[in-house]
Amino acid sequence: MLNEKLLVGSHAPYWHSGISIRERSYHTLLAALPAVLMGIYQFGIPALRVMALSISCAILWELILNRVMKRPVTIGDGDAAVIGLLFGMLLPATVPWWVVVLGTAVAVTVGKWIYGGLGCNPLNPALVAIATLIISYKGVMDLDQAYLNYDFSFPAADPLKAVKALGTAAVARYSLTGLLMGQQVGGVGTIFALGLMIGGLYLILRGLIRWEISLSYIVGVLVTAYVFNLVHPEKYAGPWFHLLAGYTLLGAFFLITEYSSSPVNLIPMVIFGVGAGVMTILIRNIGGFTDGVVFAILLFNIANPLLDKIRPRALGRSK
Amino acid sequence: MIKRPFFAITKPKLRGSRVWGLPKEVLVEIPLPKKATFVVKGPFPKVDELMIGIGDRVRTGQKVRLATDRGDYFISSVTGTVSNISPRSGYMGQACTAVSVNAAEKDQRDDEFGRVAKDVSLQNVIKYLASLPGAPNFGSVVSFKPPLEALVVTGVDSDLLVTKNQFVVDTEAEALKLGIETLRKISGIQRIILLVPDYLKKQAEKTGAEVRAMDPLYPDTLPRMIMKKLLGKTVPVGKRCEDLGIGFVSAEAVVALQKAFSEGQVPLHKLVTVIKKEGSTVHAKARIGTPVKDVLKALQIETFQGDRVVLGGPMAGLALFSEEEPVEADTNAIMVQDKVQIVPGSDSHCVNCGECVRVCPAKMPVNMLIRYLENGRFEEAAQGYDLLSCIECGLCTYACIVRIPIFQYVMLGKQEIARIRSAEEAHA
Questions:
Q1: What is the number of alpha carbons within 13 Å of residue B145 lying toward its C-beta?
Q2: In whole angstroms, what is the distance from residue A194 CA to residue A199 CA?
Q3: What angle do CA A19, A193, A133 make, to 5 degrees?
Q4: pTM of the full structure
Q5: Of A8, A11, A24, the CB nearest to B407
């Protein structure tokens, strides 16, 4: 018995599709690349600085928390890098370094590890950090202030803020093509709408995000913006403007689709997406904040467990 | 191994393999083993109830009862002396008893069945053919009370890569035709449906039975999915297909039944699809009880430390700890995996990616279920999260992004629920 060769025993199935968290993470990084590169092109080295610092800090915090919480080192799965990436993409290019360090600490600690790490977070970690910053430090997320020293070929005012203050008259200054091609001020990775769409489409085709959520979120945003625009065309901007400006597309493809804070069944996914989309426009148009994406998604993250109770009847179950 | 495609917006499509009119030479006959082991379900009998002992001689085809208090028996597929009787634990710790026989080189046929084989009757089936190759519970299916409405003869193979039933339909159409008649006669069930993959439809129609063709897309080939998709009957939780009047018998068993009565001999051979490391398959015919080791040796398949040997197919087979384990009546395939092909599971937490929910054919909330199962809360899993709806296809584990052995947790949960409920009944 002792010198018998040992076979590997395990339970069925003996095949695996080959997917892994690592693959998901690195392909998310890849999908975000066009948008990030455009941010670096528009805002220069400061944008690169924010992205590099954000990703490396997030990984470092993850490593520290792995050690502190006596858990296996999980930086290899790339989840921390994705958190750092998304957090960096949301920040203006000129934020001071401590904002990035603090933000990533909040994202990785409060956003992820206090709940037990990967898969246990009820809220999107990057959004938890951004929300903390928006509430705690009013100035740092102000896009008008952030790009004062830049000389752009396009209007250097935050489009959403301009619309909020001046009504639709401000929209005329922004061309939709310009917004699509990254000619707006915003977070490092949020300005290039086309790049985000390409990245999002890539993730959807790869099956790495749940397209139902993305699609219903976009539908929610478009329909609500359209209704507002219909009622008060001079006060509220149209749906396409809302789709291309601000955090909408990053939210639709990268933030709202975060696995553990979003539902998995079809009807809940649609309610979740549409609800967050509606809430985004509500906050933008009649709420107190300039961009509603952050709080709208966080709010629906909280509703996720409740929503996911709506599910199909399993095989062989009676009513 | 069928991997996830690069672009994967839809569910994975796992289609069963085909046999394309393979010549009969492809069937490799495994030589007579030196030792054969027969596994009988149920715990080790009390010593004074044992009906056989070490050193007893058995003949080929002899019906051997294990204990006086049980009707269970096995058919010895070799001639020789009993060398060992020992308790053994099967899947999920199920109690079994294994009887090993040291085989002599020459067969001595037992003719007990041969004397009564002219009488094609249910009584003789129960007495000698309760377990047939490819249908270990054949006796209980055909004698099910109340009588079944229909029998489905499966010419499809439930697991991926396994092709032995298709092989039977393809090469033994004549015996299958007669077998279906025999089946009708002994069971009294008039409606017999022959289920085959699309490409074997013409071949199957030669049998004259009611033929249904299907696309062998996994897991549609599992009995409960066949019930739902082809027969339009959903099996309620806690019921079996038989409770709805439908029984399942493999094509291999029907042919074995036919040959048993026409040749007057209890079938001794099991047809297995052997899946080699590189994924190619070959059909082998081995005596029931032959150690897996002998089958692999005859086919010149080498295994090394760290490899995996599976009884069954890649989705629902049973991994072996030792190659000494025998080929049994339900061993449809033997799969060998090289150690580099093994994807280890992990104890990571579920990330809620939803892949399992997408692939689950039973529409179970697998993402929630696994949270309860991991924490041992089986009752809640069964009552609130549809644990018992599982049709045991294994797709959840196949698709899991963090590689949690979900299928194993589900089977453990089902086992525990069964144990808890039977204990409750016993104390009620």
A1: 0
A2: 9
A3: 80
A4: 0.93
A5: A11
